[in-house]
Amino acid sequence: GNYNWGNGKFKQFSEPSEGYHGLVFSDTFGVGSQFGNIQFIIRARVEGLRDFGPAISPFNSWQLLQGVETLSLRVQRHVDNTLELATWLENHPQVKEVEYPGLESSKYNKLAKKYLKNGFGAVLSFELNGTKENATKFIDNLKLTSHLANVGDTKTLIIQPSATTHQQLSDEAQLAAGVKPNSLRVSVGIEHIDDIKADFEQAFAAIK
After folding, report:
1. For 7, 34, 143, 191, which has the most beta carbons within 10 A of its beta carbon?
2. So what's the pLDDT on residue 19?
């Protein structure tokens, strides 16, 4: 279209985007740019479709319906595995702290028990007794667990937020968001819990 979204009334176009390393959409894709005035549709695509995911295909719809049939069974396995892994990590000598509302030590445990009657979710984070480099090395030595940023998969996934999801932020902004250099986030899958713990244990051994 011809409308100038970078006229100053719409900050999401005229001010730097933290999610894209300070990119100003109106400068790069606005009126007078080499691409033409495509700032609105570009932002709708790279942020709207990314965040809301409305463009589902017929095949993906069919897969979704297939998955719903066993959803409750899988979620229960996710939840059971996560609580057991969190408890195990909390007692591990190479772990400084574990964040999971299902743990008695969590400051959110009372609220979690009040509102989450069927389990406490499948995502936890933990802080290593070590440096940012130790956290990176830990991930590199995992074999069963996948280094991926999504959550809710049937397989166990792990990331280092300071180097992935929050890497565009300054160190100060990361800490303000609760992201520490040596912290790791885990989306626990439905593998046998003994296999998950064994994978973590051999990775811990590699960074001693």
Report:
1. 191
2. 83
Classify 53 as helix, strand or coil. coil
Residues 6+ apart with CB under 8 A from 145: 155, 156, 157, 158, 186, 196, 199, 200
* Tokens standing for residue 66: 């297939």
C-alpha to C-alpha distance for 164 and 180, rounded to whole angstroms? 12
Cα gap 186→199, rounded to integer Å: 13
The Cα-based distances of 43 to 39, 165, 172 in angstroms read 6, 19, 27
Q: What is the pLDDT of residues 68-115, one digit of tens each?
A: 999 999 999 999 999 999 999 999 999 999 999 999 999 999 999 999
The total domain count for the chain is 2
Q: What is the pLDDT of residues 159-183, one digit of tens each?
A: 999 999 898 888 899 999 989 999 9
The three-class DSSP label of residue 7 is coil
122 lies in which domain range? 70-206
Residue 80 belongs to domain with CATH number: 3.90.1150.10
The pTM for the full model equals 0.71
